[in-house]
């Protein structure tokens, strides 16, 4: 028996049969488990023999070698066995038309590993088998195996393989069109990956799949961010799939109708390495056709780069939409100079059948892409000038959308704090919360006058502290409506005692029914006046416009409440600013530097905000987030620890900004994120807290970074 070195010499000299015979003899020799030198020699012989069959494109011989190696593998460690089998099976990837043999060999080894009770090897091979089913498009065979394997992995809590299987599950479900399950599987994969060290290759594959799924949802802004991360990830490990990630990134920019951004991307440090690839040339040609709004150039590109475009399932899925977009842009380019144009001339200019052009123009008119009408009798398209929108009408709609919020704030400010004395007057019972609000409120014009139509149900929570005994309960007004006011009726109410019955509780309950609840009527009488004063100018009226209101003589307690609690109009006068701050905190499984980049890098912000972002972490720079719904200016930057910015939402009074302070602190295994918002208009505290939780915290959570989430809502006075 020779050695591996002798076999290598024979192979290099062209004596293939001799070298192969030496390697097989070494592999088949009976070895003792303690003979480490022979076992090492057999391992080298096995790998060299597998490489020989791979180079000779001999799939059958490679399959036989895998089977013949089982005697040797029974003598070595189980972990090394798994590694060797996976390497040998991977050799099939370099042999054309060997997919069926590779699947058969993998299934045989799965059965052998079950028989030998090698659980780790079995799970690795089943993961390989799922990947092979996916590549062979045998999706129905892959799904049952995924379900069975996931049950085992969750029991064993093997996060690395669990991440890989969830990723394959996402790919398979995406391939069969089950997008909800594909998204859920990707989220599970990210969650598993965040609890372990995730290798760069696996992280890049997760980002690639995330970009693909966002592109399927037409969220190309977020998809572009994921593909940018994928490009950097694959480039860092010199993986050829970096060029594919760049191709998808450019596709997203094309689908966003910003082909002018492609040159800047291709000049980047990473992208420039792949700028000369054929995939990039394809996207540049498509972008040029889009920039010129030329359908003919696009069709020529499809023919020229047929293999690159049609053979890629991800690109192919978006070709139809891209073709439709270019056809629309091409039609707009042709009709732009005309007010009346023949359909036959349009069809001639875009090189399309008249019938197809007519259908597309009809769809564009219905979609309000432009204003016009098809004169089928004359075979013409009549294009109208764009009608200027009535700003008053838009303002009215905007006002109506906000009325429910305003009503909620009105009652919150005017009812919370109302109080009445208990017994001899040494104690008081007060309303401390508006716990329920339901109903409809409308404000509009009728014959030049403002009218209000409303019907609401209110529930208030009250509390009293008498001789160190806390008593609480509720008051419910089932009907607070314009009809009660118009008919000069008394407001009905229902009270409920939530505390245990006692003499003190009975005295408080009596005060609520006899004093506190009746005192609310003065607030209800003022409702029409407050609502009209707030929105008169929005609907084209002066604030002093007459309105049908009922005059009432309030009781002494109600009069006191009226003078001490008033509703501030958000459109006029000084803004009433809360003395409270909203604080939301979360611990994230991400480094401080990476979290800072997520929050300040305009290319990564869309990954968690799900909307375009304009952001530059420089003092004095203006920013816009969530599609323009959040705006402000950078005040202080202390990277990567602290960011201070002015902050406002459209619902706040015009010109008013709060201050959002973002603080990051690195822990042992996570980074703590604190968001502190101050300068909030009175009554907006709950909405502001919900906004920070829903859009910032949940956005980051969707990426799988949150390991434990705790929120705190602080209402301490700011000194």
From TrEMBL:
Keywords: Proteasome. One of its GO terms (biological process) is protein catabolic process. The keyword Ribonucleoprotein does not apply. InterPro entries: 26S_Proteasome/COP9_Components (IPR050871), Aha1 (IPR036338), AHSA1-like_N (IPR015310), ASHA1/2-like_C (IPR013538), PCI_dom (IPR000717), Rpn6_C_helix (IPR040780), Rpn6_N (IPR040773), START-like_dom_sf (IPR023393). Residues 219-388 form the PCI domain. Residues 537-577 are annotated as: Disordered. One of its GO terms (cellular component) is proteasome complex. Pfam families: Aha1_N, AHSA1, PCI, RPN6_C_helix, RPN6_N. One of its GO terms (molecular function) is ATPase activator activity. SUPFAM superfamilies: Activator of Hsp90 ATPase, Aha1, Bet v1-like, TPR-like, Winged helix' DNA-binding domain. Residues 555-577 have a biased composition (Low complexity). Belongs to the AHA1 family. This is 26S proteasome regulatory subunit rpn6. The gene is RPN6.
């Amino acid at each position: 028996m020779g050695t591996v070195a002798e076999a290598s010499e024979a192979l290099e000299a062209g004596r293939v049969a001799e070298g192969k015979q030496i390697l097989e003899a070494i592999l088949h020799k009976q070895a003792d488990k303690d003979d480490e030198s022979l076992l090492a020699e057999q391992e080298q012989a096995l790998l060299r023999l597998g490489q020989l069959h791979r180079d000779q494109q001999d799939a059958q011989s490679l399959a036989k070698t895998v089977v013949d190696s089982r005697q040797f593998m029974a003598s070595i460690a189980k972990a090394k066995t798994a590694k060797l089998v996976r390497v040998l099976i991977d050799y099939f990837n370099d042999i054309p038309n060997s997919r069926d043999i590779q699947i058969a060999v993998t299934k045989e080894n799965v059965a052998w590993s079950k028989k030998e009770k090698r659980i780790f090897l079995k799970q690795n091979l089943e993961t390989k088998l799922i990947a092979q089913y996916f590549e062979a498009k045998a999706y129905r065979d892959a799904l049952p195996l995924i379900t069975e394997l996931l049950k085992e992995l969750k029991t064993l809590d093997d996060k690395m393989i669990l991440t890989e299987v969830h990723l394959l599950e996402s790919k398979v479900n995406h391939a069969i069109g089950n997008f909800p399950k594909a998204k859920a599987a990707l989220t599970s994969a990210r969650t598993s990956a965040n609890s372990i060290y995730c290798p760069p290759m696996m992280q890049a594959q997760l980002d690639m799949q995330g970009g693909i799924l966002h592109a399927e949802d037409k969220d190309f802004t977020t998809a572009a961010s994921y593909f940018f991360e994928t490009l950097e990830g694959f480039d860092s490990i010199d993986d050829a799939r970096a060029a594919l990630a760049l191709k998808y990134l450019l596709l997203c920019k094309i689908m966003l109708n910003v082909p002018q951004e492609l040159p800047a991307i291709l000049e980047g440090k990473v992208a420039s390495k792949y700028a000369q690839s054929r995939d990039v040339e394809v996207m540049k040609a498509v972008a040029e056709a889009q920039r010129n709004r030329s359908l003919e150039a696009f069709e020529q590109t499809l023919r020229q780069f047929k293999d690159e475009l049609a053979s890629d399932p991800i690109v192919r899925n978006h070709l139809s939409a891209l073709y439709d977009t270019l056809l629309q842009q091409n039609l707009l380019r042709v009709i732009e100079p005309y007010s009346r144009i023949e359909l036959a001339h349009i069809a001639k200019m875009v090189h399309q059948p008249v019938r197809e052009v007519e259908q597309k123009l009809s769809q564009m008119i219905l979609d309000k892409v432009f204003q016009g009408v098809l004169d089928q009798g004359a075979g013409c398209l009549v294009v109208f000038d764009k009608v200027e929108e009535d700003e008053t009408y838009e303002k009215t709609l905007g006002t109506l959308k906000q009325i429910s919020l305003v009503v909620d704030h009105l009652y919150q400010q005017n009812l919370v704090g109302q109080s009445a004395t208990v017994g001899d007057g040494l104690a008081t019972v007060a309303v401390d919360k508006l716990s329920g609000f339901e109903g409809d409120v409308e404000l509009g014009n009728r014959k030049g006058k403002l009218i209000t139509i409303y019907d609401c149900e209110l529930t208030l929570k009250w509390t009293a502290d008498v001789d160190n005994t806390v008593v609480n309960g509720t008051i419910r007004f089932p009907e607070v409506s314009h009809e009660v006011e118009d008919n000069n009726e008394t407001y009905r109410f229902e009270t409920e005692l939530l505390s245990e019955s006692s003499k003190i509780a009975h005295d408080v309950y009596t005060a609520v029914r006899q004093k506190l609840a009746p005192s609310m009527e003065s607030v209800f009488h003022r409702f029409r006046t407050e609502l009209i004063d707030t929105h008169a100018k929005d609907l084209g009226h002066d604030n002093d416009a007459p309105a049908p209101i009922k005059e009432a003589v309030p009781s002494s307690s109600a009069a006191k409440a009226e003078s001490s609690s008033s509703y501030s109009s958000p459109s006029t006068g000084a803004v009433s600013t809360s003395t409270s701050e909203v604080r939301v905190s979360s611990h994230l499984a991400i480094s401080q530097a990476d979290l800072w980049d997520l929050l300040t890098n305009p290319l990564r912000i869309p990954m968690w905000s799900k909307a375009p972002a304009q952001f530059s972490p420089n003092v004095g720079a203006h920013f816009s987030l969530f599609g323009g719904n959040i705006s402000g200016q950078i005040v202080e930057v202390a990277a990567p620890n602290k960011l201070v910015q002015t902050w406002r939402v459209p619902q706040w009074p015009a010109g008013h900004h709060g201050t959002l302070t973002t603080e990051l602190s690195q822990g042992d295994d996570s980074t703590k994120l604190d968001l502190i918002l101050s300068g909030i208009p009175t009554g907006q505290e709950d909405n502001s807290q919900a906004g920070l939780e829903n859009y910032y915290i949940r956005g980051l959570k969707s990426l799988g970074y949150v390991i434990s989430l705790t929120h705190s809502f602080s209402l301490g006075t700011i000194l």
